[in-house]
Amino acid sequence: MARKESQRQERFRKRVGVSRHDPAYYELRTRTGRPMSKEQRKATLKAERMAKHQYLEQASLGITHYITIFLVCSLLGLVGEEIWMWHSQGLTQSRVGVVWGPFSPLYGFGGLMFAIVLWNFRDSKWYEILLVSMGAGAAIEQATGMCMEFFWHAQSWTYLGLPDAITQWVCWRSIVLWAVLGVIFTKVVLPEFVWFIGEPSSKTQAVLVGVLVAFITIDLLATAYCFYRMEQRALGIPPQNAVDVYVDSHFNNDFIEDRFQNLVVGSQLAPNA
Fold first, then answer.
1. Which of 116, 143, 156, 232 lies 20 to 30 Å from 254 when distance is taken between CA atoms?
2. What is the pLDDT of residues 114-142, one digit of tens each?
3. CB 195 within 8 A of CB 52
4. Rounded CA gap, 150 and 38, in Å?
5. Total-model pTM
6. C-alpha dihedral over 42, 44, 50, 54, to 10 degrees?
């Protein structure tokens, strides 16, 4: 128990930047041979909370935070959506949004927008965050739906037919969901996440972040190009280069229909009953 407490203290010292050469280091040390008293544990937790608050006050989000938020939200959003589909309609349906990996970029970009817009609202009143989250969530869905329709004539969801539908891609129940998620994300998830990630401090972390950025960028571009070639094939336009040939042979219409099972291209989704 004492050893675990000592290890936790060591991680804490590294997070707040206390060096072994700093006199404060020895004030934070715990004796490994004797367990901490209840008062000592309370004092330690209070010091950690103060250090955490001070760190978050001066912290700013960087590429490490953004790429991790995007990937985690893309994954969790996909899992949540597939669970909801199974629970509400009894369907097991692939609802991924990219050609590689279990990701749904809609939720990834939603998490990114929430992080960028709401980071400075984390100390605001909950109802202020609620209102901002409602607007941000509605903007994400509307912009995504319009872009998919404009660029690829594709649709993957519709709220038409629902009594609370505002547009084809926005309804009141989804706005309320975005609002609640925004409050939880801003008040609970994001501060803990930033505190946990900390500041990148090693070459390995920098390389890993670079690899993840390159991967998701290539994944998104490849997905967009696959749909571009799908539209070109529908118009009878043959491949123009080696890349087109590769895409047509490996990411043809059968692949897209099997991979993106909730997506329709060139037609309208049926309104909800």
1. 143
2. 999 999 898 899 999 999 999 999 999 99
3. yes
4. 62
5. 0.76
6. -160
Closest CA to 204 of 192, 216, 212, 195: 212
Summarize the confidence of residues 194-218 as an average pLDDT. 86
pLDDT digits (tens, 9 = 90+) for 147-197: 988 888 888 889 999 999 999 999 999 999 999 999 999 999 999 888 888
pLDDT score at 36 = 74
Residue 153 token pair: 């004539």
Whole-number Å distance between alpha carbons of 227 and 243: 14
